[in-house]
């Protein structure tokens, strides 16, 4: 299949690579030229503009930082839509607001182009391994087409509802991850302060109802003070703001997500926005007057 | 071995049964006589007082609702200590405050009796199946003796530190479980309000970093409005107050645990204290002006 791919960042580059490996004709575009050249070496064809991607592709995949980037790449001057044929499909794997996804879907439908919001979870490791989980929102036929393409880079592709539903599930994902990190931070801090053998404690905690992927993966990093990203605090903050905004539009208060977002903001205020999101324990330590750099 | 067992409630009765099955001589006492008779049918010997248990046992296990119950049974008139021989061991599997456990350990040490705090996780199902996780605090030799006995009713027995450490890990366990339930409640509420296919969403959420035992076990019950306990809201509230008190004594603020404890209190205020702790989603629904009985 002729696939266009725009956004060769930490997630996009390995995803595009898997599509090449799966035998597709992949045309790639990225703001920085170096990333395009790396994909060319792997067998992709480089483009000089989003329009050129649209001209050559039946399916265009975008993996970009935020809604304005997607808007610009699709609808801006020299954008994909200046050349994309009717009947084509746009699949946006960025994490953006559900309302933006619905807006893109409507504007593309006016041009007879289908749209699927398809945010992913699994992080850089999942993108490299081709084991991402993809949550897709859109019309059934478009989602089926998107799933067939994304299978090359994912372990799971799930249709979760109409346009925007993929982003809502991603928002829920980011709420759960942040909340579980915050609770692990509180529990680990209590254990560290009270002379408990924390390694032994983590073993038994992971054996029962308290078990979580975050407890398994992030607690040992909190103990080792290893906050190399991984997934950066700044990005998680962006995603939590999306979740809070989505909740407000759904007319539902989510008080814990609110408090947690403020703790994440406190981390950024203190200059830790570039660390892994497991560094949330540092916000709790600062709050308690402990030096977060020598616990 | 000659084992005394006091407290034949939902957890204690099946635990005592496993000790009988393992070939121990088990002397049991409980406030209500009917529970004693059930254990006698299974091969235990009934006692008429805690003192009589102390007289016949080398190791006494207590599984009681709260610290005052343990205090009364051990040190009260007709209590275990009126008859227990020096060199014996008391193992308390109740969930109580870490400071109470340390207090019991000190008072028993004065009588040359060893003490291990050994709260359990795994719930009634784990007690019946003999697959509890036991977190033990105390001196090494006493913990070894306690572990040998409790092996008959547990999948995991872990030594986590000195006296009180078992209760601290149990407190951390209850914080994590409550926090994960609260986050699942917020995430599920958002998805329910926005037309997402929640079953499909749960599949993909459980495949990534958002995965947790609570998401796996409690989210489907929230969707089915199945709040039959399980573990009751009232008991979880008691345990969260223990955690908050332990954190205060450790001079650490745990803001999320604080907010969550208040949401759990709100559930009790509304008359839902007897439901399973997964019913926390009802507190969030009430907060948002939704009828929690017809979502």
From TrEMBL, chains A, B:
Keywords: NAD, Oxidoreductase. Belongs to the HIBADH-related family. The keyword Cell division does not apply. This is NAD(P)-binding domain-containing protein. It comes from the Bacteria. Pfam families: NAD_binding_11, NAD_binding_2. SUPFAM superfamilies: 6-phosphogluconate dehydrogenase C-terminal domain-like, NAD(P)-binding Rossmann-fold domains. Residues 2-161 form the 6-phosphogluconate dehydrogenase NADP-binding domain. Residues 164-284 form the 3-hydroxyisobutyrate dehydrogenase-like NAD-binding domain.
């Amino acid at each position: 299949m002729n696939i266009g791919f725009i956004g060769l960042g930490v997630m996009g580059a390995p995803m595009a690579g898997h599509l090449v490996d799966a035998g597709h004709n992949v045309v790639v575009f990225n703001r920085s030229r170096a990333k395009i050249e790396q994909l060319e070496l792997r067998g992709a064809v480089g483009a000089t503009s989003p329009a050129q991607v649209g001209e050559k592709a039946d399916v265009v995949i975008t993996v970009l930082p935020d809604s304005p980037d997607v808007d610009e790449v699709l609808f801006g001057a020299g954008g994909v839509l200046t050349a994309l044929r009717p009947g084509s499909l746009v699949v946006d794997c960025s994490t953006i607001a559900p309302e933006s996804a619905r807006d893109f879907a409507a504007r593309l439908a006016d041009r007879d182009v289908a749209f699927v919001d398809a945010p992913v979870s699994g992080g850089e490791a999942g993108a490299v391994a081709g084991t991402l989980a993809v949550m897709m929102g859109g019309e059934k036929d478009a989602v089926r087409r998107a799933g067939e393409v994304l299978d090359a880079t994912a372990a799971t592709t799930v249709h979760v509802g109409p346009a925007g539903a993929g982003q809502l599930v991603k928002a829920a994902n980011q709420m759960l991850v942040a909340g579980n990190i915050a609770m692990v931070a509180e529990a680990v801090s209590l254990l560290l302060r009270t002379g408990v053998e924390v390694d032994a404690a983590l073993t038994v905690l992971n054996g029962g109802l308290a078990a979580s992927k975050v407890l398994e993966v992030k607690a040992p990093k909190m103990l080792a003070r290893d906050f190399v990203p991984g997934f950066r605090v700044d990005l998680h903050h962006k995603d939590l703001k999306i979740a809070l905004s989505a909740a407000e539009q759904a007319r539902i208060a989510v008080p814990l997500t609110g408090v947690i977002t403020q703790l994440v903001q406190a981390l950024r205020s203190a200059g830790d926005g570039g660390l892994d999101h497991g560094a949330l324990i540092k916000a709790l330590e600062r709050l308690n007057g402990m030096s977060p750099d020598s616990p």
